[in-house]
Amino acid sequence: MPAITRTDPNIIITGTPGVGKTTHCQELAQKTGLHHLDINEVVKKHNIGESSNDPDDPNTKIVDEDRLLDCIENDLEEGGQIIDWHACDLFPPSMIDLVCVVRCDNQMLYDRLKQRGYGEKKLQENMDCEIMEVLLQEARDAYDEDMVVEMRSESTSDIDSNVERIEQWIQNWKKDHGK
Ligand code: DAT
Q: Which residue in 8, 21, 177, 155 sits closest to 96, CA to CA?
């Protein structure tokens, strides 16, 4: 396997919408100085999402994944990216060092999505996604088993302990890779 040239790891924070990805990414970026790579922002900036034809869900964008990868290729090569996205299997495993799948209690997720103003259909689709552990399975299928960790995000103390755990992991990664 070729040596890793990046000096900081690339970490995916994934999970069903509403579980707490962005909250984790922001806290982690602030604590570590790594870059919060918000894929929603990349899609907007480069205009690489097409509106879905679903009249119930006009705001959801279908993203051109090849173009997305072109847009972030340099960032991934550089390293130190905290990738915030509700899918993970499009990122090349050779570029990824850790995948955190954020989860939360179903009722809590329902309340968060309701508060976000999701319509009933979109809400139910996302609830099914969480209940069926779709993102966890996607992560396990795409990456080595020992790269994938599951984290709960139900209270502020969960965020603190998850972020602390990832910070510790980053330090170990740097030591192990002589960085
Ligand atoms: P996502 O990026 O996965 O869509 P988010 O970070 O925007 O989710 O969080 C959705 C909402 O839930 C937001 O109002 C913050 C809240 N939230 C998430 N995780 C939480 C936690 N562990 N404790 C308290 N509130 C949390």
A: 8
